Amino acid sequence: MKLLAVLCALVSLWADSEPHIKAASRAYESGRDQAVAGNRVAPEKSFLHAIDIEPTWLECYQSLIQLYVSTSRPLEASMMLTRLLQIEPKAMNERLQLGRLLLDQQQWSRAFAQIAIATKIDSQNADAVYWFAYAADRNGMRQTALDALAKGMRSFPGDDRFQKLARELEVKTEPTDTGAERSSKK
Predict the structure, then answer these.
(1) Residue 163 lies in a domain
(2) pTM metric for this prediction
(3) Helix 42-53 vs helix 2-36: angle between axes, to the nearest 10 degrees?
(4) CB 142: neighbour CB atoms within 10 A?
(5) Total domains present in the chain
(6) Neighbours of 77 (CB within 10 A)
(7) Is residue 14 a part of any domain in this protein?
(8) Over the stretch 85-133, which tens digit does the pLDDT of each residue have?
(9) Which residues contact 130 (CB under 8 A, 6 or more apart)?
(10) Within a domain: 62
């Protein structure tokens, strides 16, 4: 008898949740359709409405983030990426995307923190290793950057980004030509 009561309660909960899911789905589909049609205002409202209804819907966050990035709104994209990462902390692509947005905004230490987490999630990911080296350099952590760069060059020899970053870091280490040296060369 108790089992029957539990099953009835579960069926009731399932039936009650279905309108909730349908409403979120309608809002999401509306936003997606509006974005495809080229509308830049209405999709945001629809995606946010869908997230209000179902706050853990990752695809909706990803669509909203894509909309913000495509309309040059990095602050809003960063905020939504942060919310998404609270739901799914091991989402590697989103964590790297947040790190890159922070680099673009010259928020070196925040970018480094996000990318460092990404390298802890997957230390064999070429993007994570590259952006870790890059962010470490921009954050003034030269030896960390050089160590990561060396690891990237060993682990991913065909990835030209590591060679390019190595050349860029070499330029920074060459001695500068001082005025005294220039006058003695004349």
Answers:
(1) yes
(2) 0.78
(3) 170
(4) 13
(5) 2
(6) 21
(7) no
(8) 999 999 999 999 999 999 999 999 999 999 999 999 999 999 999 999 9
(9) 152, 159, 161, 162, 165
(10) yes
